[in-house]
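Ligand-bound model needed. manganese (III) ion.
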Amino acid sequence: MREVIPRIMDEKETTCGYENGEYVLPPLPYAAEDLSEVLDAETVLLHHDKHHAAYVAGANSAAGVLRRIAKGDLAAELAPSAMEQLAFNLGGHVLHCLYWKSLSPEQQETPVGTLASAINASFGSMEGFERIFRAVTLGVQGSGWGVLGLDPVSGLLRIFGVQRHQDIFVPGVQPLMACDVWEHAYYLRYHSNRAGYVDNFLKHIDWNNTQQRLTSLSHE
Ligand code: MN3
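Prediction:
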């Protein structure tokens, strides 16, 4: 009989924190105060150390419940709610990992190379991208995200509004860049001015990271 393989992916290949069978909170890729041009350090620390950490804990808790159900130690009737908890919390973990890497402390030049070509092919121009990105992120009702992703059918880049952490509507979309528009992401500095936050976010997108993600997908 084949041995059960506990992991199907090398830990180094995961795009977010996972070690020794547990989801883990990766450190910020910069100091919290380094983002001061776009966000205050208190918001960044609360967001990372409290909110993101809570999604990591929630994902581990739900995954633990599902493991116990699979073993027969808990009733199978608990599976649908545990699955919903996993989707919400793991979705939060994935998108927050992407969010931290989507932000750059320095203002960025517009993309070049293959990413610029992909943006032009998908939106006509950088202005076209920004027009849709602003409208979608500002249009997210309540808590959610604006996500730049790769459409698995056309190979074009698309911008999606994601409700909560998991309702993205098109299965198979590969997220490349994400803007958190839950109020905890921006309220201390921007208050109800989500547009001001999104405009500043747009100036601080780490396009190198987006380019790397696009390149790694193109080579799969
Ligand atoms: Mn958040």
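Residues 47, 51, 96, 180, 182, 184-185 surround manganese (III) ion (CB under 6 Å).
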